Amino acid sequence: MAFPLWTRHSHMRVAPLLTFVLLTAACIPAQSHGQVDPSWLRSWNEAQETRPKKLTSSSRIAAVNEPGAPLIVSGQVFEPDGTPAQSVVVHAYHRDANGFDFGPDDSSLTTWRLQGWVKTDAAGRFDFATIRPAPDHLGREGGHIHFTTESKAYGRQWAPKVFFADDPMLTDEQHQRSAEAGRFAWIREVETTNDIQRISVAIQLKKESDF
Questions:
Q1: pLDDT tens, position by position, 111-167
Q2: 1, 31 contact by CB (below 8 A)
């Protein structure tokens, strides 16, 4: 089922409950093959237009002067059989330090303001330098990072959103479900050294593309 476009402009009036539903739907792409929220896909296609022609295994999401706590994301992508996946394109995006995806009041852009691209190395590894994203400004969920992957063998896929283990907004149920994923747990421990936070991420590719 495709979700409707969401409202980001003040001149459009909808009931509070409908606003919540629309905003929530806009942040979550459909999780079945061939079905995708058209608003999310529009943002993703626009992101492709700014994709660097040459990708390396290290890149930035947020600029050096972006407000927020510095964060290093170290990741590794694996084939469906568990072996490291080389030359996989990884796209990542997240909210800013105020909890917005698209700039102030989420009204200035149609694609994500803080996003980046890498291509995994021979060991399937990559890393991003960025800032720690804040929880959603509407209080719907804790800070997290979105990842998509693209490879010749398995097409374009969504990876689970990655959350931070020290986030008080996470529930015991979420922690339990994440732990059940083992090495691919989507709630990650945070280490801090010299005021720089660090998390490690493990992504396993599926056998078929998502969109």
A1: 999 999 999 999 999 999 999 999 999 999 999 999 999 999 999 999 999 999 999
A2: no
pTM: 0.84
Beta-bridge partners for 36: none
**Could you give the CA distance from residue 163 to residue 170 in angstroms, rounded to a whole number?**
8
- Written as one letter, the residue type at 23 is L
Q: Which two tokens mark 209? A: 């593309």
The position carrying tokens 């936070």 is: 197
> For 53-56, which contacts have Cβ atoms below 8 Å and span 24 or more sequence positions?
55/89, 55/117, 55/118, 55/119, 56/118, 56/119
Torsion over CA of 68, 164, 147 and 157, rounded to 10 degrees? -170
Identify which of 107, 101, 83 has the alpha carbon closest to the alpha carbon of residue 28. Answer: 101
Residue 14, pLDDT > 50, answer: no
Q: What is the pLDDT of residue 34?
A: 54
Spatial separation of the C-alpha atoms in residues 29 and 130, rounded to whole Å: 23
What is the C-alpha to C-alpha distance for residues 186 and 164, in angstroms, rounded to an integer? Answer: 9
